[in-house]
Structures are given as C-alpha cells and as structure tokens.
Design a protein that fits this description.
Four copies of one chain form a homotetramer. By secondary structure, chain A is α+β, with helices and mostly antiparallel strands. In chain A, the strands form two sheets. A five-stranded antiparallel beta sheet of chain A has the order 2-1-8-7-6. Chain A has a three-stranded antiparallel beta sheet with strand order 3-5-4. In chain A, helix 7 packs parallel to helix 10. At the A-B interface, helix 13 and helix 14 of A face helix 13 and helix 14 of B. Chains A, B, C, D: GO terms for molecular function: glutaminase activity.
Chain lengths: 313, 313, 313, 313
C-alpha cells in the first residue's frame, strides 16, 4: 500500500474545497488563521510519516489535547478516574450542562468539556498548575521527539478571557464537590492545554501509542497500559466528536478526536495514526475537510475497525 | 486458538454465578424462564460453532432482533432510512421519550425502541404486516440454515398487551408524521419481531454476515453490502446497549446488541460472531452474566477492534 | 360601573383587528370557523349578562372544558385527586411529555393535556364513558340554565382521528399505571369534552361558581366547596395558559383558562365571570384578541386580584 | 377583626412544633441560628404592626431580598427589564440551569437564582457595586423607617465562598452575553443582598408598598407604580416558591416570597403585609412552620385573592 500516494491523492481530491466550513471565531487567535490551510499526516509503526499540504505548520490543537490529558490522568489516577468521570456518550453538544445537572455534576465522558475539566483536575493532582503543564509538554516532546511543541500563550489567554461557559461548567461541578483543585487553577491548566500548538506531523507522531497498545513503536516509550490504550480508542470512537460521533464512526470507521482549531487526530489500531488540519468546521464543530479527508483515506486504504477483511500490517 | 476450550473455560468460570442479575418480569413469558439458564456459542468463518451450556435452547431474543430489522430495512430503503432515524448515541435509556420531543419525533438511532419502531415501519414498507413478518422469519431460516426459528406468539401477545410505553412512543412519532404505516400495524410487527425465539447457536449462525462484510461465509448469502455491514457494526458498538454502550465497548471491545430476554449478540469483524444467554439483567437491561462472559472471551482471545496486535484469522 | 358600556367599548376598540392571530387548523371543524368572529360576555352575581359581538354563537370550548372537568373530578374524588395530578406550573408547552418522563408519569397540573386526561379518568371513575359525558353535559345545562349546550360530534371525531399526541401522552401515563380506565375509554370522554360547543354567554353563566366560592349565586347550585373553588382559581391563575400563564397574570391580573378554539374563560372572585371568543391564536395557543380584550376590561374596571384598592361588589 | 388575637393564636397553635424542618446548613452563619426561633408580624395600612414570638429579631432574609431587588430594578430599567428576564414559572428548582441552556441564557423569572442575578445586574446598572448596595439599604431604611437594617457581612462572605452554583449560573448567562457588568461585580452585590438582616417587623413594614399599589400608606413613599406593584404580586404568586409555588398559592391564597433563612414575606393586596420566620425548611426550601403559619392566618382572616366574599379594608 503506497501511503504517500494515498495521502497525496486525498489532498489533491479536496484541495479545491479548501476554505469550506466555518472557522471558529470566538477568539482572535483562531479567527485569524488562514482558512485555506490543509494538512495531512500519517505515521506508521516503523517511524515513517507520510505528509501532504500544510502538515508541518503548527495549529491550535484545542480539544485534541483531551486525548493526551486523559492518557496522562489515567496514568496518574488509574481506574479511580472513572469515579470522577463517566464513559458513556452524552448525546449532547460538547458544552452542554443539562446532563451535568441530571447526574449530580459527574460528566458523561472525558471528551466533553466538563469531563475534560475533571480529567485535567485529576491530571494536576497534588501538583501546582504550572508543574502539570510542564509535565504535559515534556511528554509530548518525548513522544513526538520534537521540542518545538509549545503553548500559544495568546490563545491560552484568549481562551481564559472568553471562557465563561467553561467557567460555568467548572463552578457547576465544584458545587457538587467534583473538583480537587481550586476552579481557577484547574481552568488555568485547561486553557493552556487547549492552546497547545502542534503540526499534523507532530500530532501523528506523538500519538502512535494509541494505535499500538500504549507503547510508541518508534521510541519504545510507554504512555499507558495495553488495556488503557484500547479503552482510550473506544472512548474516542464513541465520544470523540460529541453528538456527531455516530456519523464519524459511520463514515470513517476508526477512532478520532476533533478540535475546534480544525485538527482531527485518528487512530487505526495496529496500523497507523493520522492527523488532519483544515480550519473550516461543520455544524458539529469538527473540521469539514478534515473529516472528509479521513473518510477518503479510510476508503482508499480499506482501514476500518469494523471490516471483516482488513488485515493489520 | 482453541475456541472450544475458551468457551468451556468461560462457562465454567461463571457457572457458579448463574442466577445473578434480575430477569425481566414485565411479561409472564419472560418471568417464567429459568433464571439459571446460561448458554454460549461462537460461530466462525468455516461454519464451525463452539458451544457451552444451554446454547441450543431457544429464548426470546427481544431487542437483538433490532439488528436484523435494521439490516433488512437498509436493504429495502437504502440510505433513505437515515432520513427517518439518526445514527447517534442517545445518552438516554432505551425507552426515553425526552429526546424525541426535542428532536421533533426523529429517533436518535435504530437501537432505541423508538428508532426500532421506525425501522420496522420502513422494513414493512408497502407490504402488509404479516408479509413483513414472514419475510423476516424466512431470512433468519436461510441465514441460520434452521427452520425451527419461530415467533413465540405468547410473548408477542403479552408484549402487545403490556406495550403502553412503546405505543406511546409510536403515537408520539406518528404525531410528527414519522410513520408510513398505521401505528397498530407497525406495532404488530414490532411486537412479533421482539418475540422471535432463537438459541445461541442459531443467533451466532444467523449473524455471521455482520463479521464478514455483509455476506455469510458459510452459505454465501448476502444480507447487505460491505459498507452497510460495517456501519451496522459501528452502530452496535456506539448504541447497542443504550446508555451502557460505553461501558460495554470499554470492557468487551467489539460490537454487541443486547435484549431484555438475556441474550447478547456480538460481532468480531473478520473473526467470529458470538451469542450468549443468561436471563438475569444488570441495571441497564443487559444480561449480567452474558456481558461478563463476553468480557472474559475478549480477554482470552485477545479479540478487540481497538487492539494494536490482534490479527484477523 | 356601567359594564355594558365597558363591554361595548372593548369590543369596538378591537373590532378592526378581528382576524388577527392564527386559528387552530389541525382539524377541519376548527379551521373552517370564520376567523373574524369576536364575542364578549360578562356575567355577574345578580344574573345579569353583558354581551357584545358574537356572544351568542357557540364555538368549540376545547381546553376551557378542563376547568369543568376539574371541578367535577374534585367533587367525585376529593383531595385524592392530587395523588394523581400535581398542582404546579409546568414551565412547558401544553402537550410536552418531557416532564412526564422525569416525574414518573404524574402530570404537573390538571390544565396541561396529560393532567386533563388523568382528571377525566378520575371524573369517569367506575362509570362507563357515556354516562360520564352525560353527567358533564347535564351539569353544564343546569349551571347555565340552557339545554342547548351540546357536543359537536364532528369535532370530537376529528380530535380522536388526529389525536396521536394525546394518545401518546395517555399511553405514557398508562405505562406508569396512572390511569384507572382503559386508555381508549378515557380518550373517548376527553375528546368529546374538548368538543363541547358553548357561547360566551353560556360559558360565563355556567362558571359563576368560580367567582362566588363554589356556589352559583343565580341558581343557588353548588358545584364545589368554597375551598375548592378558590383552589381552582389559583390553578387557573398559575397554569391556565401553559407557558404563557405568567404573561397573562401579569397583563390581566385575574384567573383564566384558554382553549385553542379561541375561547377564554376568566373569573374575578367576588365580582364576575368573563368569556371571550376570537379564533386567532397567539404563539402560545391563547386567543390573541381574547387576551387583549380581557386586559382592556381589566384596565377599564380596575379588576385585579393584585390590586390594593379594588373593592368587591 | 382582631389581628393581634389571630397572630397570637397562630403562634400558640404552632409553638410546640418549633424546630421542625431542616435549617439551611450550607454556610455556618445560617447553620448556627437557633432552629426554634419563630416570629410573626402583620403590618396594615394605618401603620399598626401585630407581632408574636421572635418578630423583632433580625435574620438573614436571603431570597426574600429578590422582591426588593426586582422593585428597584424595575424602577431603574422599566419594562426593558423584561428583555433580560422572563415572567413565567420555571417548573424547576431554584438553582436549575437546564432551563437556561434551553432558552439561551435568559432566566424564566426574577425569583429563581439566575433571574435574580440578572435583576441585580440591571439594578446595579452603570453604578459601582458598592453604590448599588448603599442605594438598596437606604431604600429599606426609608420604607421600614428603621436604620438598623444592615448587611451581615459574615453571611455575605460565606455566600460568596460557597457560591459555586450561583457563580456557575452567572458565568453561564455571561456566556450568552446576558450580563452588563462583570460577573464578580454582580455576584458581590447579589451575595450582599442575600445577606441583608431584617426582623419580621422590619420586613412587613418595608414591604407595605406591595399591598397598596406601589406606595407605602404609612410613609407615603412610592416604591414603584401601581401597575408594577400588581405585577410584582403576580410574579410572587406564580414564582415565589420555585417549584412549590402552586402548593403555596393553593394553601395560602396570596402572594409570597420565601428565603432559605426561613423567612417568608407575603402580601394581601388592599389589606396587609405579613412576615414570618422559622429556620426549618420543607423539601422545597420554604420555611415549614412559616408556610403553615401563613395558611392558618389565611384561614382565620379569610384573606385570599381567590375568595368571592373577602372584602378589602
């Protein structure tokens, strides 16, 4: 299978539609990104990365960071994390508070905002916020073998300034005693984590552990246990795109996690990780071109966790 | 891999816990079933079936029938079915009406009751109810190569007599113009389909198409296209256990669909189909022992769609 | 106070706007009513009735009938009725099912559809449906001293044929064991009661008991106890216009109950009852001109239960 | 009518049950109040005040303050206030956020917490928070002719420290652009207003404007227009006790507003204002003994806005 050819064909097939969808505009740093950007990267077991377009330009990964925060919180907390956050699809938009009220402040899963805030709280643990952020960055540097991964402080500051809804969610959970750390401490980490800047290449490389049972096959670094890696994939498939997750599982057929910066990270267990980036979003907040690129790659490669014939490499 | 050994080990490991959970008691025909029944069957590509316990005793498949109804409705309607029913997890119990009110009578997915009623309506199409039921039975006979599969008319009648909630859901959707056939015609098929009686062996054999891209590898019969088979698996993984689907995906790692009769059907794409039966249910209405048996089989076989190492046969 | 002058002034002030609002169109019998009809009647303690416009033409009273059904159910059941139906505003539209799901099938109050269906069920009691309907009509004849009050069977039949939502509500409650009689029996009375045809004059006369502590000051007939009459007024004020009740209490200042036929019944305790009719409805399903007429009458008379100066007659 | 006798009889009839109900315990200042406190005061047109029990001891008026905040916000903003907050019962508990999400951050009415926060925001207007608080206190001093009314700073501080839910509501609304002032400024006034300490006597005297069309008959001071006073009464009747308002209107029959400090303020238009205080609350957060005292006073006086015979003084 010629993955470089597949990546190129996919990019070319969609290139004319760059700029479709609606970029997130709630903070200046996102609104100012060139909407025609479009990058694709596929990383495989042997360390190869197949790229097209703007795959080496960093963008704000936003909610894609929830995958890393979850892996690291699980690493710190173990199964106790699941007392703080559920593992079920929410059936609601990413920032809904309705479910929280009905279920006494316990978020449905780690990929909706409320669940990610709790996950971040547990990832911080008994450290200070800055130490937690440093730990997160350092892990990403190691996994991606690239120390240029950084936090866009402008984005983080803007997130905080416009973060009334997330603040509301956090205080709501605090009211139910769901947070261990002070609300503003948790949010300070949460907003910085949303502001992490990575390229498609860095994203695909940093997340190989997802496709290979918890251990990066290139560096040999273990991010989490086999069982936990599989479970993170399960959660991504079920909840990675909020109330658009079914559509994504349906069209693409493998786990993914989207961010409003236009990035999507996907995992094909046993084969590869994929990262795509195009700022224009669909109605559900997922990159429009990105989701279509992944569907085309799924078609061209035959990769699908639901396939009866697809062979692992 | 010695599947007979795995099936036997699993059965033996759980045999002492037969009778745990709470059998469905809303109709006499279900309440009278011996709660200690426990059967397991695994069917594979070459026609082998590995069984343990009460795998040859028929039980009421209840909501497991939604998988067959969906496959057959898709076969009749094609993608137009998705205008009548969604493809997203509902985040609610199986018989919730809240989501229906918010979304103008369009059910979230084909595996909650409202969605299954719409699916049945489309499967009936412009035929009479009896013709639709005959068609469904005949397909099951062919797929399972077993004409003993039948409808338990006692169960169907009891379902109808106690079916106030399902009647409410159906009239609610009718109020939004969502049904093509008269409510009572649709329900007459729906209740009979819930009353289908099959054994674990029959269930595993009849559903091999799910694990092998739409075509039964033993009979060569095609139930649906490759793409549709994959998508039914996706829906089973995301929505097959109502608001317990995340937990199941998490613990078991492959698609499944449960019924309140205590049966669970599961599919391991490329490998096998599995059927388990034990009447006692957990809080979410899934067979307690059945779910544990599947989790043990997943552990013993390494089967998981999220695994980075699992090789297809 | 010259009530005839006030009634005439109000009618004249609004006459040019006859035809505004949107008449209910869900059944032919309502859609065919002349939308420019406009009638007003005020009945007082001494048997006088002050009328303007089409006050002597009968129309379909629809949900206004819920007031009579409630008074008569209370008469049969006493306070036990409140175990079957609540006494709180619902904060939702008249036919919402969301609240029913959350509160186990117990309706919030007797004036939303679900609550009226339960009330009708209790009013039927252990009699047959036809006997209950005959009892209701006979009481209206006596209270209004007018045997021309009748049931429009065309309307009742249409209501039943298009009544999928009400059927859904009824089956939903039946599923929770909330109904004593078979669903179709209850609905047969409910739909006929909605189809009662009365004129403004008849409506105002039949409901004097509301304004005078349960006993009609003209006929001397007692409909219910003093305490119950006051409580029906309280419920009308709090819940008489679904999720528009606050607006009505705010603008008009005394208890009322609207119907989608365009009628509104109102009660000024100690003074009078009022009935207005104009088929065009506002967004919340209350007669547009009717509500404005009542607000003008409130202004012109100074009648308000919240007034610090208003003196009873 | 001997009001002193009625007040004494009511106090004596309930004295043995002092201490029933559950005092609010979420802040120390409330938890430490002697639970057996029980005071009653009735103020009438001519300046008389009829008291029993602990009617001269100050307590934390909590949500009763929402009545004063509403009157003063209406005075500043006029009808424009109703673009910021609705006038309908919410059908939900006082601190529910569900309705806010469904209705884009606009609270249902000024007496649920979210609505009171918006009302406070408008009452502040373009002044600083401290100036607004000073204005509120000064008005209370004038209306009650008593400068001992003050803010319990301990209570206000505790409210703020434990106010995660209210903070969540405020940020939620801020996210929808519903607040003119910074969240923390609004809350600083809101928490201080909840911490106002008044006695039953002061409360009854300060609120006579409610029963007398906006103007205090003793001091001659006008708090708001006739129309607005009536409307505040309407809102109190419909929404003054959250999802227990129907019950209260039913049992008591005139407008009231409760606070979790155990106080209830009530208004009998044309007759009197009443204030009761007993710290133990019922399930809905209203003073248990207080509500019963008001019901007894209603019985003994015959006061009810729904009565057909009750004559104004």
């Amino acid at each position: 299978m010629d993955l470089q050819q597949i990546v190129d064909d996919t990019w070319n097939a969609l290139a004319d539609e760059r700029g479709s969808g609606t970029p997130a505009g709630y903070i200046p740093a996102l609104a100012q990104v060139d909407p025609t950007k479009f990058g694709i990267a596929i990383a495989t077991r042997d360390g190869s990365v197949f790229c097209a377009g703007d795959a080496d330009e960093q963008f704000s990964i936003q909610s894609v960071s929830k995958v890393f925060a979850l892996a690291m919180a699980l690493d710190r907390e173990g199964a106790a994390l699941w007392e703080a956050v559920g593992r079920e699809p929410s059936g609601n938009p990413f920032n809904s508070i309705v479910q929280l009220e009905r279920e006494k402040g316990k978020p449905r899963n780690p990929f909706i905002n409320s669940g990610a805030i709790v996950t971040t709280d547990r990832f911080i643990g008994d450290r200070g916020p800055d130490e937690a952020v440093a730990d997160l960055l350092s892990r990403l540097h190691n996994m991606a073998r690239d120390t240029r991964i950084t936090i866009d402080e402008d984005v983080a500051r803007s997130e905080s300034e416009t973060g009334a809804r997330n603040r509301s969610l956090a205080y709501f959970m605090a009211d139910f005693g769901r947070l261990l750390n002070p609300v503003e401490d948790v949010l300070s980490v949460y907003f910085r984590q949303c502001g992490i800047a990575m390229s498609c290449r860095q994203l695909a490389e940093a997340s190989l552990f997802l496709a290979f049972d918890g251990t990066d096959p290139v560096t040999g670094l273990t991010m989490c246990s086999t069982e936990r890696a599989r479970r993170i994939n399960a959660l991504m498939l079920l909840c990675g795109h909020y109330d658009n997750s079914g559509e994504f599982a349906f069209d693409v057929g493998f786990p993914g996690k989207s961010g409003v910066g236009g990035g999507i990270l996907a995992s094909v267990p046993g084969r590869a990780t994929l990262a795509v980036w195009s700022p224009g979003l669909n109605r559900a907040g997922t990159s429009l071109l990105g989701a279509r690129a992944l569907a085309q790659i799924a078609d061209r490669t035959g990769w699908s966790v639901f396939s009866g014939t697809f062979e692992k490499s």
